[in-house]
Design brief:
Elements (H helix, E strand, L loop, with lengths): L7 H38 L13 E15 L9 E14 L3 E6 L5 E6 L1
Antiparallel strand pairs: 1-2, 2-3, 3-4
Length: 117
């Protein structure tokens, strides 16, 4: 629309209002997804973790991290009888606006609460 068009000012105002509404809707959508994911994470931990669903709490990001631990057993008789085994386990790290929650994933699609800070 040309700048000199009689409706230009009204169209610009309408566009500005549409952008405000779109921004508000996107923010509501983001908060709803955060609430849904927080509920899923709470279900993963079950009763092991305090209630993550708090009115002020917002999930910023969550990560699933594969980790390997090596357990080395040594024998006092000889170094050739030493054996090493590696245990793989996934961990979940949840970053909220007020806390960080860490858990260890189990084989039963549940998470064992490790701690929070």
């Amino acid at each position: 629309t040309p700048l000199v068009h009689k409706d230009y000012v009204y169209m610009e105002k309408a566009l500005s209002q549409i952008k405000e509404v779109a921004t508000a809707l996107n923010e509501k959508n983001r908060l709803q997804k955060s609430i849904e994911r927080t509920s899923e994470i709470q279900a993963l931990f079950g009763d092991e973790c305090e209630d993550l669903m708090m009115p002020h709490r917002v999930l910023l990001h969550d990560f699933i991290m594969p980790m390997s631990y090596s357990n080395i057993e040594s024998s006092s008789s000889s170094s050739s009888s030493s054996s090493s085994s590696s245990k793989k386990n996934n961990h979940i790290l949840c970053l909220f606006n007020d806390i960080v929650v860490i858990g260890s994933m189990t084989n039963s699609a549940k998470a064992k609460f490790v701690g929070k800070a």
